[in-house]
Amino acid sequence: MLIATFIISFYGLLQNFGIDFVMWNPDTYSKERFFSTLGNPNFLAAYLVETIPVIFIMFFVTKNMAKKVVILAVLVCAITVLFLTKSRAGSIGFFVTLGFIIAYAIYDARKPENRLFAGNKPWFVMFAVFMVLMCFVPKVQEAFSMIWERSKGLLSVHGITLTPRVYIWKSALMMFRDFPVLGTGLDTFQVMFPYYRFPIYWQLEWNGTPEKTHNIFLQVLATQGMFGMSIYLLLFVAFFKKSINLIFGEKDLLRRYLVFGIFMGIIAYIIQGLFNYTVAAYGSFFWIGLGFVIMLDSAPKKYYSADIKFAAGFWPYAAVIAVLFAMTTATTREWMADMYYKVGNIASAADKDEIGVPYYKLAVDINPNSEIYWVKYGIAYEKLMRKETDPQKKLELIKMAGNIHLRTIHMNPMNGYNYNNLARVYKHYGETLDPSKYQDAIINYNEAIKRDPNNAYFGLDLATVYINMNQWDKAFDICNNYTKLYPDFAVPFSYLGYLYMLKGKDYVNQAVSYYEQAVSGKQWFRDSTTELSTYSNLGIIYVNLGRIGNAADMFERVVKEKPDYVEGWLNLARLYSMMKRYEDEASCYEQVLKLNPSETRASVPLEALKKRLKR
Which fold has domain 326-453? Predict the structure, then answer.
């Protein structure tokens, strides 16, 4: 524990001071909150807050001066990095356990036969000095400031209502309400959550689906019901009873203090676990700690043993080797499948799905029980089918994508995204080859919405199907509902603008109204396609209404969001021409020629402009 904490803390310090030698995933990497080797600052804080009390006790029970100095250095380093994680739960856990340690030290000092803490007063003072000096480190002061900024909002009712964890906890309680005896099933929270997701959680985390409840007790209650919760609480009661008895009754002082350190570590685990979820990197401490507390009891115990003798010969040892080999092979296959899956993801991210598909196939062949492997495999075929222009080849790709997504539905019928993925395939099928397939898309979209009723993407995808089928009233009802449910989401407003635009010139005012609401500071959540089409459509309407300046503003947004969009630059050039802004018009044509030097729609008018402007 001491060695691991030293490595983790030292690496964490290096990260915080700008020294790192690992190319972390930029999507999960934050320069404000580092995480050492644990992949998440809250996980790092959870590990440190568990181990710090144990190392603290190790420091006091160690008599060798050199070892004391080393342990103290690791302890100070670990506490510093704990604060640099800027984790609220970790900080709370630290201060609560520190309070318990101080209280126990005062209690212990009153007993002359103990004298452990009382005999280490100089070291106590030195530790306190280190703690005070640490508070003057700029990085630590910055961390305290951020922890306070992140925490003070919770002191108001408004701050609490904007805390996503509150709505995760509410959803967990709703699961318990519906499945009170055995819960939803082990590790099923992520699958069941969409059905219980609140609209406000969607707004706060936007399509986020948490893996766990961010509370160890609610996790058990939701997924294991009263039956599992009773056993879990019984375990805690037994642990607390055993620990308290040893802390105040164990005659061997070394064992007593070690039990106290482990007990404080598990208290810290519980405190941060009220706001966090458990992973193996630090959750293992809890179970190991329970075992240590039992082992450190010096009272006489009964032991039972069995004397197993192998028959003479080679075969028993060969059997053991075979079992170990089989286990190693199984583990290696899991690892290989994951490597192939990650290569497929890299290829897909680079828009090289023709390369990614074979790797996804290798992943599902090796590990056919992983749902996410199949999901990504099917999506890769979807991307290929959209690129394909040959009808026969497109049909083959559509069937492959559909069959894969159908398999994921059989694997996990509770996941709304599996139905949505299949519906998306049928939607493309209807758009390109067979309009009758729209009906299959509608069926699967509705199945997806049943499982995730507040998912705006499912409903808006269904609305596009109705638009394609000219069933505008159904599309209008869906989009209008989402403008009320998510008033800060731009896309449903944009869809309503498009619907009114389709109705013709008699509805142009309604179209402008909804489009203008969409572009007035609402959020697009990375739906760049709809965003750009909204700017373009509103710009075209402005041109037809004679509002040339407003139209130019829209197309300026288009080229700002998509600088390589040739049509956007050409449209903006025409608008600048109408506004007699000839220098700006020339600049637009020059941008087009940078993107496509052979584009005559830019080169010809640019030459004429140069003559007019005498360039």
Answer: 1.25.40
Number of H-type helices and E-type strands within the chain: 28, 0
Lowest mean pLDDT among 235-244, 294-303, 493-502: 294-303
Both tokens of 8, joined, read 């983790």
Which pair of structure tokens corresponds to residue 601? Answer: 């729609």
- pLDDT of 315 reads 76
Taking alpha carbons only, the member of 153, 28, 42, 24 closest to residue 91 is: 42
Q: Write the CB contacts of 122 (distance below 8 Å, at least 6 apart in sequence).
A: none
Examine the pLDDT at 115 and tell me if it is beyond 60: yes
Residue of higher predicted confidence among 464 and 611: 464
The helix (run of H) or strand (run of E) holding residue 146 is helix 138-152
How far CA 100 is from CA of 144, 263, 546, 592, in Å, comes to: 22, 11, 74, 69
What distance separates the 2 farthest-apart alpha carbons in the chain? 104
Look at 77-81, 207-211, 409-413, 598-602 and tell me which has the smallest mean pLDDT.
207-211
Beta-bridge partner residues of 489:
523
CA atoms within 13 A on the CB side of 23: 0
C-alpha pair distances (Å), 68 with each of 56, 60, 600: 10, 8, 79
Torsion of CA 464, 467, 469, 473, to 10 degrees: 120
Return the DSSP state at 35: -
For residue range 90-108, what is the model confidence (pLDDT) as tens digits?
A: 989 999 998 998 888 888 7
Asked if residue 30 lies in contact with residue 44, where contact means CB atoms within 8 angstroms, the answer is: no
Cα angle vertex 10, ends 144, 290, to 5°? 85
Read off the pLDDT of residues 237-295 as tens digits, 9 standing for 90 and up: 999 999 999 998 888 888 888 999 999 999 999 999 999 889 898 999 999 999 999 88
Among the listed residues 170, 206, 209, 214, the one whose alpha carbon sits nearest the alpha carbon of residue 192 = 209
